């Protein structure tokens, strides 16, 4: 068979089956945007003829990583809200209130570049203005599953007041909903299917029951999923009890929200009973280890979710919280934070991190028919990771293999050399081929310089922990 | 003044004072191996003339990182003992027992290369055979503070038996002690003072009281410190109670061990009272967040140690446990694991991680008169970190600065471009100038291939968790 590309002589990690599906000295054949063959190098070379042969000796070939939850524009505020209390009110809000939509679009490209350069091929981006941000994914050539942020909070609300019940503004809700519908109409299944759309109710406490039901109905109509923060913190629980006398998951259950369409983000405050309810109904969990550790000092109950039979995926959340849109970072944190939470080194082994960033993630976001494993017939979203690095050597294969622990506990992301998305080489020798990286960085930096200037007085007025650190020479 | 080198236009983080000592648009002047001037670029350029001018625009210039505890030869077994119980007995021992001394020397170079390439300039290496391993530090040009591992355990003991009291063999103890003394005699203060030596009692449970006292006396005689694991696990506590009826720290106190000379590693099991005792006597703590999280699923009480007024330093421990000899990894883990332990995002701020890898580390290992800050008169151990990277952008300086959180929560180590040790450029544009990196990797890989072959039957016989994972396609 004549194909476009063969990647040969690799440690091929297909992620098929229950483990990592390792084929030593493995090869993949790609034609157009599809994987048309996998097997040993000998098998593939004897049955395929390729336009281009990539030698992946001393390299791991694996499915592109899936970032199941991020807010890409958060990169604008990277490093500006850590080690503090009230990170949203005192850290981000004084900056965010001075930020314009086109500036958010520029900022989002930083997150996407960082992600692709560390092996992410699919981004579940939950952001506004998504109708414009989606253009970044088109340009860079990444796969994206995107939602516009929908809530019913009046624009004048500012940082969310603590304690009081939020006011809802139905007109604002409808305006934001229309943007999400417009996104769906314009972009769903576009770019050869590389762009797909979700509905994005921000959280159960941030809109009326009516709007939640409208979104649910739309998700059914367009046969897509709902990307939504659920049980993400005390504040949400308090709002829901005050408004409805119920915790969020019980409330969502009454609304008929708990099914396979629900991609529930964080679940930091979910109890074991609530988790059993979620998993029994088929909802999936988006787990963001780094962000929740840095912002809240907590480890969400992902192990309970997995033990209850649920499907969970890893996400970076926002660079404004986590500082990092690098799934290698996230895989490592997931494993280590859960070992520490359970005080057991066997908990959350390396292979589970790899699965939650590939095959399980694909299932959790509803794209497992297309991506998540290296399987004949699936889309060619593939990364090549160089393990010939002092930090990843030695490599042994017999009688045990050390590649899986080293990818999770040792690799840093910069070992990713080549990124192929939908059959197209988007990064090679660590250089992005589809955009001008330097120029994109400068554009984002310019924007932030202006925001910081406009926000100056508000930041100074916030008297945040960070400002005190700055004055005392700790920053 | 005529100098050899000026590094200008940088974010200069001197680490002086109580914080990070940031000088925006700062410069450093170096003559021979000494820092001869620091200040703003204007100040330095107007008073110094340099042979070589390095432009560090968009770069952070900071003290080289100090890895306060590692076992460098552990890189031989990277990724071969994670996610399992009995990591020492079933993971490492089946390999270690088939490993020869010259093979350990080759393996150690992997750790050192990984460390230097991620900004480490000083290595507190606790390893055997140190008389030979020290040659790697000489060759690569790093600063090292080294100890030979001394214990009194018979060579035939193998993996330490659980439950029984270890037998001691005084002849073995004396043989190992002589190697440590020989190291001290041959290498202490050599290579322009770049190599200094410590005594290395492995742990209080692994030798007789008599040998411990002999080591203490030698440390006094040579006016150096003792690098020693203390309260590192249940097993040690049980041995000490069984043998002496005392917990290790109380026992060491009776022996007069608790003073400034003691560099106590791990302290995983130390109580608050024991920590107060240690800090009141001036002993320092070597804290290895990643290794202890992966091996034990625990977070040692470093915050208690700091709150009790003690001096603590970060270390990577062995790549056989931690998988990583990268201090950027360690800085991030230290901050995040302690936030989670205390369930408070304000705990262990980024600046504290930076200090525990530089100025506090220098104090903890007794080299603060020479290194740890960028200060006139100190040795020129300096790294240059590029922050013009999609994962570290944007950079803002006013009214708050985001560099410190980004270095700790965002940087991965590969952003280190240049490493200067004792005034000599050891790495430039990420290329090691002093050794053949490729050749050194191949040499280590060859050695491990042979060990894995020799160890084959013992690994298979171990029936470890890893072996089961391997058979089930999880590795």
UniProtKB/TrEMBL annotation, chains A, B:
UniProt entry keywords in alphabetical sequence: Hydrolase
A Pfam family it matches: Amidohydro_1
Source species: Brevibacillus nitrificans
PANTHER family membership: AMIDOHYDROLASE-RELATED DOMAIN-CONTAINING PROTEIN (PTHR43794:SF11), AMINOHYDROLASE SSNA-RELATED (PTHR43794)
GO terms assigned for molecular function: hydrolase activity, acting on carbon-nitrogen (but not peptide) bonds
Keyword Signal annotated: no
Chain ranges of the Amidohydrolase-related domain: 60-426
The keyword Hydrolase appears for this protein: yes
Cross-referenced InterPro entries: Amidohydro-rel (IPR006680), Metal-dep_hydrolase_composite (IPR011059), Metal_Hydrolase (IPR032466), MTA/SAH_deaminase (IPR050287)
Protein's name in the database: Amidohydrolase
